[in-house]
Amino acid sequence: MLISKHLKFTRPTIKSIVSLTSTRTLATTTSTHSKDHELAFLRDKYSTYSFKQINGLSRAISNELLKQYKTDNLRGERIAVLCNNNYTYLTSIIGIWMANGVPLCLNKQYPNNLIEYFMNDADCKLVINGLDSHQPENGELNALLAKLHVKNYKLVENTFHLTKDENNRAGNFSPKEELMSLNEMRSLMKRDPCKDSLIIYTSGTTGKPKGVVLSFNNVTSLNETLIEAWSLTPQDCTLHVLPLNHVHGLLYALMTSFYNGSQVDMLPKFDAKVVWSKL
Description:
Number of strands: 15
Distance between the termini: 14 Å
Helix content: 25-40%
Shape: globular
Order of helices and strands: EEEEEHEEHEHEHEHEHHEEHEHEH
Strand content: 15-25%
C-alpha cells in the first residue's frame, strides 16, 4: 500500500494519491507553512530532513564505513542495513553507495536465525545496526554478530541526525543547495547502470529466502516508470507505512519519492489510527 497526500509540513498545493495496486484517488488541497517546511524532504518520528541533510548524513556513514574497512573504496562489499523505519535506513543505503558498496536490506523484526542465514548467504562482514539509546540493545543479536565475526556498526538513530556539522544544521539550506544535493545523490544511481545496487531477499514461502540482486538500472527504470505511470511531481507527498526490506516499501514508496524529489512522511510502522489522523 502506498499513500500520498497533503500533510501539514508539505508545500502549499499538493495532490492526494491513495494507491492500492493500480487504484488511484486524486484531490487537491492548500495550506500555509514555513519556508523550512517547504524545503523538507523526509519526516519521521525524530525530525524533518532536507535533501542536503540526508546527503550530509549519508556522507558521514560512508566515511565511517571506509574507516571500518580501512580503505577508500568498498569495491562491491556487501553491507547489511538493519535499521528501523526512519531516516537511517535511507542514509545507510546512500552512504553504502557513496563508499561503492552494496546494501543488503534487512528488517529489525527478523529472528536471529534468519539474520544468521542472510549474513552467511550474502557473505556480509558488516551490519549497520540501528539502535535507540532509550531502548535496551539486543544482546542475542550482538552475540550472534560476534560469533559470525561480523562488524557491528551501532548507529544510534535518535541522536545521529543531531550532527555537529554546520552544513547539516536544520534550516541551513536553500532551494539551490537542495537541488544540488538531490542531483548529487541521484548521480550515484546513474554512474554505472549495470552495477549491483541492492540485495533484497524473497519471503521464502516455497523454501529458504533467496537473495535478489538488483542493478542500478533496475532501480532507476522502476522509479522512472512509476513516476510516469502515477503522474508524480515534486509537489507530491507519500505517507509511508511499509517495511523497508521489501520492494514495495523500499523501491515503490521511498526510492521513487526520493528519485522524484518529492516528500515522504514515514511512520515507524502501520497504525490505522495514526494513518487516518493524517488523511
